[in-house]
Amino acid sequence: MSPLIAIVYRAYYTPSRCEQNRTMQLGDFTLTTISGGRFRLDGGAMFGVVPKPLWERCLPADEKNRVPMATNCLLIEAPDGTRTLIDTGYGTRFTDKQRAIYEMPNRSELVDGLNTLGLTPSDIDMVILSHLHFDHAGGGCQQNIDGQVRPLFTNAQYIVQRREWDVAMCGESEWSAIYDRSNFACLAESGQLELVDGDAEIAAGIQARLTGGHSPGHQAIVIQNGNEAAVYLGDICPTWDHLPMMWCMAYDANVVDVRREKTKLLGEIVDRQMWALSDHDSRHAAARLSRDKRRDFVADTLVESL
Ligand SMILES: [Zn+2]
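ok -> C-alpha cells follow
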C-alpha cells in the first residue's frame, strides 16, 4: 500500500468489530461493507467481448476459468438510528451441486457479518435491491423450517424499481431463466415491497438512480450527507476492472445502455469527487476515480475490502 493510500485508508476506513466488515464515515452516515458471500463466476461471462488475454491480466482465472467475486452489501446507519441495507448477496438456498459450481459457502456471511456488529436481520429498517438477480436479491429471503420462503429482514421495507419487478415477475421465457422468482415473490405477499419509478429520493440522503442496462430496472444508489457523497454502482460497473466503457459483462441485458449509463455515472462521480462503491470487486470495496485517456476511467485511490 502506498503512503497516500495508507493515509486515506486510515482516515476513511477503520477496521470494524469484524474482520469481514469495513466502515467508512460519510458525513453523519456510517457506511459498513458486509459480505453477502464470496463466490466464483466464469471469467468469460464477466468480461463479455473482452478477449481473455486482456481480462486475465487484471483478474486471473482458476483452472475452471472462474474469477473471484465478492458480494459487497452496504449497511448505511443514519444519525437518527435508521439502518438501510443495499443488496443482500445470494443467500443460502442452494444445492450442493450449485455450491460447487460457484464455490459458495454453506452459511449466510451476511447474517454472520450483521451479528459481529451486534445486529440481527430484524434490526434493518430498509433493504434496497439494486436489481433482482440471485447474487443481489437471494439473501433477502430465507426458507423457514415449514419449507416456506419468507423475508429475512422482518421489519424492513424492500425497495425495488417497478420496471425490474415487472420483468422479474412476468414469467416470460426470455426472462425466467435469469430471475428466480422464489428469491423475492414473498416480498409482495408479506406487504414489505415498495416499488419506485425511476430516479427517486428513497430516504433523507439516499437516492435511487435508475440506470437500466444490466437489467431493465437496475438502479445505482447515491448516498449524500453534507459535502460528502458516494455511489453504490451495483452491476452497472461490477468491479474496478470494468471501468473502461467497453468492458462489460455477457450478463448485461442491454450492453449499449450499460456503456452509456456507466460512462455518464462514472463521469459524475469524478466531477463531483464522490466515492465509488463496488458490489463485486473482491479486493477493494471503495475507490476514488479519475479520467484516463486509455481506459476512460481509473481507480487511483483504492480502499481495501473484506
Ligand atoms: Zn451481480
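The mean pLDDT is 92.
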